[in-house]
Amino acid sequence: MTRIAITGANSAVGNALLTELAGQTDTSAVAIVRRDGALDGLPSAPSITTAVARYEDGDALRAALDGVSCVVHLAGILFESKTTTYQSANVETTRALVEAATDAGGRHLIFISSIGADPASPNGYFQSKGKAEALVTGASFAGTVIRTPLLLGPEMAGGKALVRTASQGSVKTLGGGAHTLRPLDVDDLSAAILAAAAQDEPADAAVHDLVGPAGVTYRALIEQMAGLLGKEVAVGSTPIWLAKLGAGAAGLFRQGGMTPDVIDVITSSEDVPHNADGDLAITLTPLTVTLQKLV
Ligand SMILES: NC(=O)c1ccc[n+]([C@@H]2O[C@H](COP(=O)([O-])OP(=O)(O)OC[C@H]3O[C@@H](n4cnc5c(N)ncnc54)[C@H](OP(=O)(O)O)[C@@H]3O)[C@@H](O)[C@H]2O)c1
Fold first, then answer.
1. Which atom of ligand 1 is nearest to the CA of 92?
2. How far is CA 49 from CA 44, 45, 63, 284, in A?
3. Ligand 1 geometric centre to CA of 77 (Å)
4. Å from CA of 199 to ligand 1 middle
5. How many domains does the chain have?
6. What are 170-198's pLDDT values in tens digits?
7. Domain containing 278 — which CATH number?
8. Which of 7, 67, 236, 249 has its CB 3.0 to 4.6 Å from that of 172, i.e. a possible disulfide?
9. Is any atom of ligand 1 closer than 6 Å to the C-beta of 61?
């Protein structure tokens, strides 16, 4: 039996992954969260145990990783706040985990990154994900990076926002929603993670771009979702430069939230030169089926 550890287990991706894992007989997991309150509502099954470990506590992290063959690192943010930054949530958690996994004799770490990650990016989010990737691929054990686009599922923030947007008669979207997305069903990501975790001999360092089966503009995605909900929606436009100006001004009074960097991330193209679905041995769910799950 494969035994894996999942950090940020209370995240939306973590919940989907644990739900998938609960139905399997060949994989067990320790679900790691950083605070007691995050244990509430985690999917439960005989094959799932839990651990609470803060990233500043190397001993607790090492203890949580005892006996696992693969660690799946999900903790991470897109929206900074007064208490959480890209550096702390995306980079330092990864650094602490790589150190703990090294000490615990780790064999394989899978990191969920983002399409566009790049340590040299001027965008704080893409830069932090790129730096975290480098920590994973530079580790002394096997490191697998799976870069993902907008993830869709009933409990994913992106899925909920899409349903909310498509349910309004008239909406304004950034740049008229002209940017191209490659939305990925979160259940496909779970399948890819579990397949990668089950590998007997993972590559020393592998970086995969895993996106959904179809390219679609955000505008068309909203319209398609509205159709499935039996609604009509008129999609208008807020100029991206204007939104960034407003976000920049708001940033004078608050930390994080919808910043110009976040606007750049959510309006970036998610097209990739090569999709890793074949490399990761998964079959992608058609977009219509994924959208049906949100209805
Ligand atoms: N959702 C998407 O469409 C998407 C797209 C591309 C990549 N990803 C990546 O996939 C992963 C999971 O995403 P998600 O949407 O499922 O996340 P989510 O539901 O927003 O959950 C975020 C997780 O990160 C933890 N976290 C936040 N700040 C932290 C900090 N400073 N230190 C340690 N842990 C911290 C949270 O723990 P607490 O509850 O304790 O705060 C929670 O477990 C993330 O790495 C994300 O960047 C997601």
1. 32
2. 8, 8, 13, 29
3. 5
4. 25
5. 1
6. 999 999 999 999 999 999 999 999 999 99
7. 3.40.50.720
8. 236
9. no
